[in-house]
Design a protein that fits this description.
- The chain has 155 residues and is mainly beta.
- 6% of the residues lie in helices and 49% in strands.
- It has one helix and twelve strands.
- Strands 1, 4, 5, 6, 7, 11 and 12 form a seven-stranded antiparallel β-sheet that branches.
- The chain starts with a strand and ends in a 7-residue tail after the last strand.
- The relative contact order is 0.28.
Length: 155
């Protein structure tokens, strides 16, 4: 099912906190995160839909990813990882601000992008729903993250 990987989408985490969320939400999941450079990659399925988003801090790897026991919901058809300092809720599509910036990146091909050099946003494969996420934490600090929008067995 997974056909193509888009690599080397680079962003930075400066605040030491990462928001993992649909950018339309007022209360994202926020985790302590390794500061510095992060890299994201996307797995696309054979139809070109984004199936998975991976992101990791420089010098970290995806080994030891464990399920994160939280609901990662999507209501605007998009999801991202953002430095918490840029995650500003309360704006609508078409209004200047964080949410509109995200929408402008995901509304048309290639359906993803780097937000203000401090986050990655992507369309969420099948769209709205609840998705499984995995993380690698060292001493309670997030070093890598994966969310699966389309499972290998999904049609």
């Amino acid at each position: 099912l997974l056909e193509l990987t888009m690599n080397n989408l680079n962003f930075s985490i400066h605040s030491g906190r990462v928001a993992a969320s649909d950018p339309c939400y007022d209360d994202p999941h926020v985790f302590p995160a390794k500061t510095g450079a992060w890299t994201a990659s996307l797995q696309l399925n054979s139809e070109g839909r984004i199936a998975e988003l991976f992101a990791y801090a420089e010098g970290s790897e995806f080994h030891d990813l464990k399920p994160i026991d939280l609901d990662f919901g999507v209501d605007s058809g998009q999801f991202g990882l953002f430095d918490d300092e840029i995650y500003i809720s309360g704006t609508d599509f078409g209004e200047p601000g964080f949410y509109n910036d995200c929408c402008q990146l995901t509304i048309e091909h290639p359906y993803y992008g780097v937000v203000d050099c401090k986050g990655i946003v992507t369309s969420s494969g099948w769209g709205d729903g609840c998705y499984n996420a995995f993380g690698s934490f060292i001493d309670g600090v997030l070093h890598s993250f994966k969310i699966v929008f389309i499972e290998e067995g999904d049609l």
